[in-house]
Amino acid sequence: MRAFFRSAMAATILLTATIPAAAQNIQTIILAGGCFWCVESDFDLVNGVIDTKSGYTGGTTPNPTYKQVTKGGTGHYEAVQIKYDADIVSIETIMQAFWRSVDPTDAGGQFCDRGDSYRTAVFATTPQQAAIAERSRAAAQKELGQKIVTPIRMASKFYLAEDYHQNYYQSSAIVVTKYGPLTRSAAYKKYRKSCGRDARVRQLWGSAAFPGT
After folding, report:
1. Count of domains forming the chain
2. In this predicted model, what pLDDT tens digit does every residue of 94-111 receive, in sequence order?
3. Report field, pTM of the whole predicted structure over 0.85
4. Which terminus of the chain has fewer Cβ atoms in its 10 Å neighbourhood, N or C?
């Protein structure tokens, strides 16, 4: 099964420039997978994904800020709104990529990022999506041989994160870090490596890990 997944996923990971300009069957799903910079970065690789936006969802505080969400108490998750052309990529493939790009066994956050706002979750926009996500979760759990704790919920209002969070992993703006001044892109790479995200995903999923990791 893992060999099949690797070959199937490899076929989907193409340069976004290959996506037709006039997408016809646009659908949306919202995925929480810890740091939203990382989820954006991973899903921008998937052929058929036409747009990703970082934001907050699942809570009760209106118009939350990053500081409020990460502090806790809002009920919101860091999440990414993913728009995809269903004529190019199926929701089944999106879900396969999601499970294998996170640690869905961790109920306390993701990797070095701890707390409720960094937990995993799937926010479906249609009942059909939710049903497919549930079947996909069951299959992933069976393959992994460990309990997946990621909830599947119907989507609620999605609030866009602050502008500087969007496409953070590609930004050339300069930020001051513990390593000195760096572009956001360089700072993101150092953060992702030091957080242990890719190492843990590979440890958990082995050769079936999402290619972005």
Report:
1. 1
2. 999 999 999 999 999 999
3. yes
4. N
